[in-house]
Design a protein that fits this description.
This protein has 227 residues and is α+β, with helices and mostly antiparallel strands. It has a single domain, classed as C8orf32 fold (Roll), CATH 3.10.620. It is 38% helix and 21% strand. The protein is built from eight helices and nine strands. It has helices at residues 6-16, 35-44, 47-62, 68-82, 88-91, 101-107, 112-125, 210-219; strands spanning 84-85, 109-110, 133-140, 145-152, 161-164, 167-172, 179-186, 189-193, 199-202. A seven-stranded antiparallel sheet has the order 6-5-4-3-7-8-9. The chain is globular and about 45 Å long.
């Protein structure tokens, strides 16, 4: 199962043109290591949800000194293990909802965007440079549907590695013959994808978007999903 229809993908591309960057992005999760987060999680989620959030906070603390290569594998496996796929309309009752890592882990479910968001901010919190990781919209060839993955560049301009919720195996983009890159972006911009997952940065404009709303919830340490 994949995440989007063609119409949804076009809509999201328009949202990405409005991505609002923030200087606080890289540090936004680093302030979550406190008892209030766990207390709020216990109030708003069941015991399993609170346990997942505790395991995530413990995971952040215990893996900060690992190599970048080790981190991307650990994070990919952790999120794939603790999150079950569920689309937004069934999960949140909305056509589109960008959940924070706390919301996704508290509920234990999310769509491919939510996997990628959780992996992205977890890697930032573990010290991975934002320049090395991007969200990437791809097309899954076997089902001819859009999908989202996280890509990691070990070195600039090299073929990136793909972190996908459908597999725990991290491989280079040229080994993923089932995926065709469309667009990639991170908190600092948007790229038009070329072959091998590389691309040219496009100009972005400040504005309100699902991304900005999600960032705001992270910075506030919000645990409970927005109604």
């Amino acid at each position: 199962m994949v995440c989007f229809t063609g119409q949804s993908l076009r809509y999201k591309f328009l949202l990405f043109l409005l991505i609002a960057t923030t200087a606080k992005t890289e540090n936004s999760i680093l302030h979550l290591h406190d008892t209030k987060v766990l207390s709020d999680a216990t109030k708003h989620y069941d015991s399993q949800g609170a346990t997942r959030i505790k395991r995530w906070l413990d995971f952040l603390k215990s893996n900060s000194s690992e190599s970048d290569w080790r981190k991307i594998h650990l994070v990919n496996n952790f999120m794939n293990k603790h999150i079950q796929y569920k689309d937004d309309i069934k999960h949140w009752g909305k056509n589109d909802y960008w959940a924070t890592p706390l919301e996704t882990l508290g509920m234990g479910a999310g769509d491919c965007e939510d996997y990628v968001i959780a992996k992205y901010f977890t890697l930032l919190s573990l010290g991975i440079s934002e320049d090395k990781i991007r969200f990437m919209y791809v097309r899954k060839i076997n089902v001819n549907q859009p999908h989202m993955v996280l890509i990691y560049f070990e070195q600039p301009n090299q073929i990136p590695f793909v972190l996908d919720n459908f597999t725990s195996k991290v491989t280079t983009a040229d080994q993923r013959n089932d995926l065709t890159p469309i667009y990639s972006f991170n908190g600092s911009g948007l790229w038009l994808a070329k072959a091998k997952g590389l691309g040219n940065q496009l100009r972005t404009s400040p504005g309100v978007s699902s991304w900005a709303a999600m960032i705001e919830r992270i910075e506030k340490g919000q645990v409970r999903p927005t109604p």
